[in-house]
């Protein structure tokens, strides 16, 4: 079951108010503004300085501010120059620099072995980092988030650096540095979004002594201002589409959350140039939630079987067999899918409908399997539950649509590989979502239907374990799945960097969507929304 937003939350109300404005001013292209901004030249100059450390720090800063899309060529040159000198990194004694270099190169698909940290390991293969600065420890902690299976030194690096930073934070007199440490531990860059951390980054840059601080601040503030206008316009378009569709009026119990669905698209596609794609992607994401609600809240097994068979047939005549309350949803699914498919065909020349049909068919079949389990009272084995739950998460449907919307399906060979293979990159992202969902500490306020849990299935198989032990097991599974996702994303593969980033971003937003606090709210997701709209 997918999470919902509380419609009474203040952030939800504020965002909805923004989306209702009429007569908005013409949207300024961020790219056009940046081309004209004189501040750009200062930043480009700082990126291209001969001092390698300064260049890499600037790459890190513009990424954290979320304006790296405006400096793609310069960033690539900085990293390419550093990668040609990668052999020198093995002998480097500066932990801060080695960690920063390892992370930035890895995030941009340059392979760097964890052996670069051998200089900081003693003869017993233990890290010797107690005497390192706080900045170095934070840099090491950030680098450890990119680890893959088998990189034991980075497993230790994450645990040890976190422990040392937590210990030091208790005795720090420097308030700004304490905030930096707290933000780093809570939101490491590789698993987070610029919109959550950028306010602190802007503050640090502005208060710095370097001359480029003002230029960075002005560019970052302009990006925020124009982005918010752009997101406001896009949300208005999604909201109008959803209201015109009328499914919420037809099915009173389903979730009515265009803001939530649109927020997912802003996470998957962060580049401002993908405005139309974000609007289109919100449509299948909304249907994932609506169909999930139909299976959880409305249908009998016989009705749900009919619905699944109709999706498998993908035939408008199949709607005649459905109950009235299902017909509109099914017909909406067909219409929306064909509308999106036609737009993709016009733009890129490949018809994606067959691939969309396969993804929807698999999703509904997985939903039906869950319904059969829980209507019958049967509790599957944990592995069986998870394998099905990976599909019922809806991740594959969202990412297959993303794949075609950004033009990656330009050849049938690429598209076949995505839909017909295990597509482990997609499955790992889906596993992270499913496990986080089942680890969630609260259920949706308005959801009364049947729901499952990996934790419940696991405890049935291991009756000797406590809830705490089972939850810890799931946390370890999420950590291991992130390692696999890192390897899949950063090893050679046929996917574009935009699509890979979309997969990573979906995994990144999952904790924001499922990390409930004691008041049954989602504070991290609300913080992300504030960065987008307020």
Task: Walk me through this protein's architecture.
The chain is mainly α and 534 residues long. The protein folds into two domains: 192 residues, Glycosyltransferase, CATH 1.50.10; 279 residues, Farnesyl Diphosphate Synthase. It contains 26 helices and no strands. The two termini are 29 Å apart. One of its GO terms (biological process) is terpenoid biosynthetic process. Keywords: Lyase, Magnesium, Metal-binding. One of its GO terms (molecular function) is terpene synthase activity.
What's the helical proportion of residues? 55-70%
The CATH superfamily of the largest domain is Farnesyl Diphosphate Synthase
Q: Please state the CA-atom Rg, rounded to the nearest Å.
A: 24 Å
E-strand count? 0
Poorly predicted residue ranges: 3-28, 441-449
N-to-C span: 29 Å
Shape: globular
**Whole-number average pLDDT?**
85
Q: Would you state the CATH class of the largest domain?
A: Mainly Alpha
Main beta sheet strand tally, sense and closure: none
CATH-defined fold name of the largest domain: Farnesyl Diphosphate Synthase
The total tally of domains equals: 2
CATH architecture of the largest domain: Orthogonal Bundle
Order of helices and strands: HHHHHHHHHHHHHHHHHHHHHHHHHH
SS-based class:
mainly alpha
Number of helices: 26
The percentage of residues in β strands lies in: under 5%
Cofactor: Mg(2+)
Pfam family, one: Terpene_synth
GO biological process, one term: terpenoid biosynthetic process
GO molecular function, one term: terpene synthase activity
């Amino acid at each position: 079951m997918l999470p919902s937003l509380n419609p009474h939350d203040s952030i939800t109300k504020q965002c909805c108010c923004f989306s209702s404005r009429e007569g908005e001013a013409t949207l300024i292209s961020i790219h056009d503004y940046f081309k004209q901004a004189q501040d750009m030249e200062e930043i480009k100059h700082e990126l291209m300085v001969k001092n390698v450390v300064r260049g890499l720090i600037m790459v890190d800063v513009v990424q954290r501010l979320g304006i790296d899309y405006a400096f793609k060529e310069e960033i690539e040159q900085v990293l390419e120059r550093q990668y040609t000198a990668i052999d020198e990194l093995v002998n480097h004694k500066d932990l801060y620099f080695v960690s920063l270099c390892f992370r930035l190169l890895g995030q941009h698909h340059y392979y760097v072995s964890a052996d670069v940290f051998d200089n900081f390991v003693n003869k017993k293969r233990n890290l010797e980092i107690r005497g390192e600065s706080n900045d170095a420890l934070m840099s090491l902690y950030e680098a450890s988030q990119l680890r893959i299976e088998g990189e034991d030194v980075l497993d230790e690096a994450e645990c040890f650096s976190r422990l040392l930073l937590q210990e030091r934070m208790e005795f720090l007199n420097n308030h700004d540095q304490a905030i930096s440490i707290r933000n780093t531990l809570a939101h490491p860059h590789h698993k987070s979004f610029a919109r959550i951390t950028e306010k602190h980054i802007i503050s640090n840059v502005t208060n710095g002594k370097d001359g480029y601080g003002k230029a960075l601040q002005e560019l970052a503030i302009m990006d925020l201002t124009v982005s918010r206008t752009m997101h406001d316009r896009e949300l208005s378009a999604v909201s109008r589409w959803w209201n015109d569709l009328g499914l919420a009026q037809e099915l009173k119990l389903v979730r009515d959350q265009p803001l939530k669905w649109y927020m997912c698209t802003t996470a998957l596609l962060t580049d401002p140039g993908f405005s139309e794609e974000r609007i289109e992607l919100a449509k299948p994401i909304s249907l994932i939630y609506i169909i999930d609600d139909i299976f959880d809240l409305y249908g009998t097994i016989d009705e749900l079987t009919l619905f699944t068979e109709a999706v498998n047939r993908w035939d408008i005549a199949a709607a005649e067999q459905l109950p009235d309350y299902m017909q509109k949803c099914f017909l909406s699914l067909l219409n929306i899918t064909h509308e999106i498919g036609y737009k993709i065909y016009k733009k890129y020349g490949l018809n994606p409908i067959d691939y969309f049909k396969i993804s929807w068919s698999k999703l509904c079949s997985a939903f039906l399997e869950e319904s059969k389990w829980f209507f019958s009272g049967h509790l599957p084995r944990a592995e069986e539950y998870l394998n099905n739950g990976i599909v019922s998460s809806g991740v594959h449907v969202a990412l297959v649509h993303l794949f075609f919307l950004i033009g990656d399906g330009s050849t049938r060979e690429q598209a076949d590989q995505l839909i017909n293979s295990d597509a482990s990159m997609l499955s790992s992202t889906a596993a992270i979502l499913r496990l986080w969902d089942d680890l969630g500490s609260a259920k949706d306020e308005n959801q009364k239907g049947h729901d499952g849990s990996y934790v419940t299935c696991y405890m049935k198989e291991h009756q000797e374990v406590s809830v705490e032990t089972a939850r810890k097991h799931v946390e370890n599974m999420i950590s291991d799945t992130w390692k696999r996702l890192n390897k899949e994303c950063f090893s050679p593969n046929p996917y574009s960097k935009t699509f890979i980033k979309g997969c990573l971003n979906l995994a990144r937003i999952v904790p924001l969507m499922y990390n409930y606090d004691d008041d049954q709210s989602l504070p991290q997701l609300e913080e992300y929304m504030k960065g987008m709209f307020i």
